[in-house]
């Protein structure tokens, strides 16, 4: 069954680039941007992360906590976050438990070849743990605007 707006967000737990344990249940009372991206330090993923970084103050002002998720290991996340001064958590999900729970794994195309990988998709989760929005057509360089609706 696919996830839809208005449904409870699947619970998740993970470790970020700084060794912090992050769980959805600990984020109750906060609005969460849970964004899935294919790979650290690749062109599209870097543009997306830097767009969120550059608009971090506005997103925080709107009450959002930002969490990125990819299948990369913690050490890769640490290098990526340090290189681009990313002020938010990046969860390592090498076993793809969170990625699978949020249906962020699927068929992709690159240069005409089909393969499976992490999809670029964002879930906005409200203060009560309910999915309020799903952004499937993520534009890496305008992602904060997509979230804020500007």
Key descriptive features of the protein:
alpha+beta, Glutaredoxin, two-stranded antiparallel ribbon
What does this protein structure show overall?
By secondary structure, this protein is an alpha+beta fold. The protein has a single domain (15-148), classed as Glutaredoxin (3-Layer(aba) Sandwich). The protein has helices at 43-54, 56-61, 74-83, 97-101, 143-148; strands spanning 13-16, 21-23, 31-36, 64-70, 89-92, 105-110, 113-118, 121-125, 131-135. The strands form 2 sheets. A 7-stranded mixed beta sheet has the order 2-1-5-4-3-8-9. Helix 3 links the parallel strand 4 (64-70) and strand 5 (89-92). The longest helix has 12 residues, at 43-54. The protein is globular, with a radius of gyration of 14 Å. The N and C termini lie far apart (31 Å).
How many domains make up the coordinates? Answer: 1
Instruction: Give the strand order, joined by hyphens, for the main sheet.
Output: 2-1-5-4-3-8-9
Shape: globular
User: Counting H and I runs of at least 4 residues, what is the number of helices?
Assistant: 5
Strand element count:
9
* Main pleated sheet: 7 strands, mixed
């Amino acid at each position: 069954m696919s996830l839809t707006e208005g449904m409870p967000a699947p619970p998740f737990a993970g470790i970020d680039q700084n060794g912090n344990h992050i769980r959805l249940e600990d984020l109750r009372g906060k609005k969460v941007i849970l964004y899935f991206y294919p790979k650290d330090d690749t062109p599209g993923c870097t543009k997306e992360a830097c767009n969120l970084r550059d608009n971090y103050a506005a997103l925080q002002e709107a009450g959002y906590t930002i969490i990125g998720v990819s299948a990369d290991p913690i050490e890769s996340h640490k290098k990526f976050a340090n290189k681009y001064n990313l002020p938010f958590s990046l969860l390592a999900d090498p076993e793809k438990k969170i990625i699978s729970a949020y249906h962020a794994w699927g068929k992709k195309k690159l240069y005409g070849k089909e393969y499976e990988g992490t999809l670029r998709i964002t879930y906005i989760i409200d203060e009560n743990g309910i999915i309020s929005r799903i952004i499937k057509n993520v534009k890496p360089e305008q992602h904060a605007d997509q979230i804020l609706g500007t």
